[in-house]
Amino acid sequence: MENAIELRDLTMGYGNHTILRNLYLNIKVGEFVSIFGENGAGKTTLFKGILQLLPIMKGNIKIFNVDVTKSNEKTWLRSQIGYVPQRHNQGNFPITVFEATLLGRWGSSFSYFKKPSAEDKEVAKDILQLVDLSHLSHQDCRRLSGGQIQRLNIARALARHPRILLLDEPNTHLDIESQQKLDNILHSIRKEYHLSILMISHDQLHTRRVSDRVVHLRNGTFQKDLELVI
Amino acid sequence: MTLLEFFKVPIFQRALIGAIIAGGTISLLGIVIVVFNMTTLRFALMHFGLLGGAIGLSLGANPLTAAITAIAIGSLLFGPLSDKFKLDTGIIGGFFMTGSIAVAFLLFYKAGVPALDVFSLFTGSILTLTNSDIVFVAVLGLIILTTYFTFFREIQLIFYDAEQAEWLGVPAQKIRNGLLFLTGLAIGVAMKIVGALLIDALILLSAMAAMRIAKNFKQLLVITSLLGMLTTTGGLLLSMVMDLPTGATITLTGVTFLLISIMIPTK
Ligand SMILES: Nc1ncnc2c1ncn2[C@@H]1O[C@H](COP(=O)(O)OP(=O)(O)OP(=O)(O)O)[C@@H](O)[C@H]1O
Ligand SMILES: [Mg+2]
Question: Which ipTM value was assigned to this complex?
Fold first, then answer.
């Protein structure tokens, strides 16, 4: 089976300070893998590498068999991956839930003078339905709860119909109920979009509940002992 | 004089045109200051302008032109400097603020600039606008409107989530630095129109009020611009009719609008 993400001998860091050492990981198409690890383990750094926001030191990263560390196909890479960053900004100016979702499609069909098309709007509407925010379409983002913001962030990341979703600690600061709702939504979007998901989480129980596989990042490498297949 | 007679005086005509253009466009940059939380930076730019003014006064040049030039240079530096050294714009701002004010006072002392001249830097007036000032304000206003129009969605993306904007391929840093530069120019113009001490009235107050009322970005732009225009022209007319100092009257008009916006219940 084809791999959605493939890390080979990946070494990364900042300046000459190495954070991740000789990582190997395969994520199959359609698989949901969670990365578990302490603060500062290098989880976000790994995402930055996959997204090519940070240069790598050694090894390579393949996305659907394309070595993104060698090819210069940034536009293609952007169309493949939806990214929900760790720091969740809810904006401090008036913008509606619908508009914020629509902005997630920037660059795919509209930009600068080109206005969003009817199709763009249709897609945004469908996605809001999927993350259960339809009823809040016209709500000002400044007045959303933590769980609602999280769902909106996922909606924005999905707006360009990526094939891979990277989630950086989507469940922090959520109460049990919002977490469960998020889990259900992840479960259904995964089916709907045939997504391969890589999620970072601090919560071991949570990762085991929602994902197919959990990998443990520690001291710059994946720990074999904690890897388990459900 | 009645209001009708005022309209026939060229000084007043220029002031009115300046008020309409500056109020309607410069106010839009207040949004940048509020969203990026740049209150320190804006304060620092003002002090930087003061340093420019001090240099101008000591050299016998036009202090306001020197001030605006200094602010323009300062605002060109802020964005790239904070990117390069990974510092928060607040720290960079604090650095420039204290440094420039100290150097300004040294210059005042060494050049023996009279206190009254120094004071004039703080108290610009819309009634002293020259024709070339009006042209400058109009060009700046046009650039501001064009920028918001061209990058309408890109600016929203950067305001909302700079990290995702970068990931989607928006030239986030360039647009942000462009906005910072325009904001610097606007602060310079505001120094001329209302004086350094009352800059906020022109730039910040209407954006702050509109933030509370608007429901989306388009409304935010329209309401900010309208409130800005109402503040400057309303303040100007009021000061004429009631024979009050213009800068202060414009500011009080702005404060009144902000108060009203706070009292409107948000649903
Ligand atoms: N821009 C940077 N420059 C230098 N070092 C950095 C930078 N960003 C992160 N680091 C360092 O790299 C290490 C890994 O950081 P990273 O953000 O990847 O951790 P993380 O596993 O995501 O942690 P958390 O669970 O707290 O989000 C940390 O020691 C951190 O201090
Ligand atoms: Mg992290």
Answer: 0.84
